[in-house]
Write a structure and sequence with these properties.
There is one protein chain. Helix 5 (133-144) packs across helix 12. It contains 12 helices and 10 strands. It is globular. The strands form 2 sheets. A 5-stranded mixed β-sheet has the order 3-2-1-4-5, sandwiched between helices. A 5-stranded mixed β-sheet has the order 8-7-6-9-10, with helices on both faces. The protein has helices at 6-20, 55-59, 66-88, 107-124, 133-144, 184-194, 201-210, 218-229, 240-266, 281-293, 303-306, 311-322; strands spanning 24-29, 34-41, 45-53, 97-103, 128-132, 152-157, 162-169, 172-178, 270-274, 297-299. The longest helix is centred in the last third of the chain and has 27 residues, at 240-266. The termini are far apart. Bound molecules: 5'-O-[(R)-(carboxyoxy)(hydroxy)phosphoryl]adenosine and zinc ion (ZN). The site of 5'-O-[(R)-(carboxyoxy)(hydroxy)phosphoryl]adenosine has 20 residues, from helix 6 and helix 7.
């Protein structure tokens, strides 16, 4: 009898895990400027969360340099595995499957994690699960709220995406709305740059805005005038605090307005938020306040699970595994991977 191929053997292992309904997943994330390895039980329980951020290095250039990102992922990934195993107090023998982000993101950065995960899966005879990064962000909510189940509406606001998604079942998404130009995080970063706030601008602008007055249009207005007439060259300054506050207010109001409309349209009872911008303090408080006033149950991950991490990839990976999805060893990085059919 011909011996089974790696893929056939993994199919059998994955089927056994599915029947059992439990899995300890080692998850890998390397789509942008964070290398991360996590260990997650049953899609819900965080056992380890090891992250190496490259922010300090990219800050020197005012943004992510893809080639540097790829190299730093290569350097960080093995030590992160040791760190994660130590945190979870286990060895590779205790791992049931490997989940890896294969898109969307920077192709070289993604490839580092994908190649590494493929090698480890092959060497250790472990099933490999392909995960969409954005689906990962949404799934951070499952770890933060172990009882949360679909259906729910999710506002996904990250560096590259602002989507409003209806999560109908585990792994089944309908796109309800999206910004047609910049993503929310991108807008925060670009505006921060105008204010001379160092990269990554979003979180620092958020802090600065706490000290500013967001009930004034003068911040935004001044920005426009500034651009038109190049005020800086004339030696005139803009008020960064008010600017930050009114800008943040505009973005948050827009996001919350649209999200509540989407929730109403779909008849949702539960509302969640995900992605780096979900760490924004005003967005969090406004979603909670206005969401609850609209009769919705509001869920959000803690800030540390909003920005890029691998715990969320482990959560998404579990539900992919339970749906019977496995990667082949030919798995490739897909920089523009989509999450929706519509
Ligand atoms: O999800 P994420 O970590 O990476 C991507 O998948 O893009 O999101 C990063 C984005 C950056 O644009 C960053 O400036 C923004 O999230 N961000 C914030 C805050 N924390 C991170 N934006 C506004 N307020 C924050 N507190
Ligand atoms: Zn992300």
């Amino acid at each position: 009898m011909k011996p089974l191929s790696y893929e056939a053997r993994m199919r059998e292992k994955a089927d056994a895990l599915r029947k059992h309904g439990h899995a300890r997943i080692l998850a890998v994330e390397s789509s942008c400027d964070e290398t991360a390895i996590a260990i997650v039980d049953d899609g819900r329980i965080e056992r380890a969360n090891a992250i190496a951020s490259q922010i300090d290095v990219h800050a020197l250039y005012g943004g992510v340099v893809p080639e540097i990102a790829s190299r730093m992922h290569v350097e960080a990934i093995d030590p992160l595995l040791e760190m994660a195993l130590a945190q979870a107090n286990c060895t590779l023998d205790d791992i049931d499957a490997i989940a890896v982000t294969y898109g969307p993101g920077l192709v070289g950065a993604l490839l580092t994690g994908v190649s590494w995960a493929k090698s480890l899966a092959y060497a250790r005879e472990l099933p490999l699960i392909p995960v969409n990064h954005i689906e990962g962000h949404v799934s951070a909510n499952y770890v933060a709220h172990p009882d949360l189940e679909p259906p729910f509406v999710c506002l996904v606001a990250s560096g590259g995406h602002s989507h409003i998604v209806s999560v109908d079942h585990y792994g089944q998404y309908r796109l309800i709305g999206q910004t047609t130009d910049d993503a929310a995080g991108e807008a925060f970063d670009k505006v921060a740059r105008v204010l001379s706030i160092p990269y990554p601008g979003g979180p620092l602008l958020d802090k600065l805005a706490d000290e500013g007055d967001d009930f004034s249009f003068s911040g935004l207005k001044t920005a426009v005038i500034n651009q038109a007439h190049n005020l800086r060259q004339q030696g005139l300054e803009i008020d960064a605090k008010d600017f930050a506050a009114s800008f943040r207010r505009s973005v948050v109001d827009l996001l919350v307005d649209k999200t509540l409309l989407a929730a109403q349209d779909t008849g949702a009872k539960k509302l969640t938020v995900a992605g780096g911008v979900a760490a924004n303090s005003l967005l969090r408080s406004e979603l909670l306040r206005r969401g609850e006033r609209a009769g919705l149950q509001v869920f959000m991950p803690p800030k540390r699970l909003c920005t890029d991490n691998a715990v969320m990839i482990g959560a998404a990976g579990f539900y992919r595994l339970m749906a019977g999805e496995l990667a082949r060893l030919s798995l490739n990085a897909l920089p523009s991977l989509r999450m929706f059919d519509n």
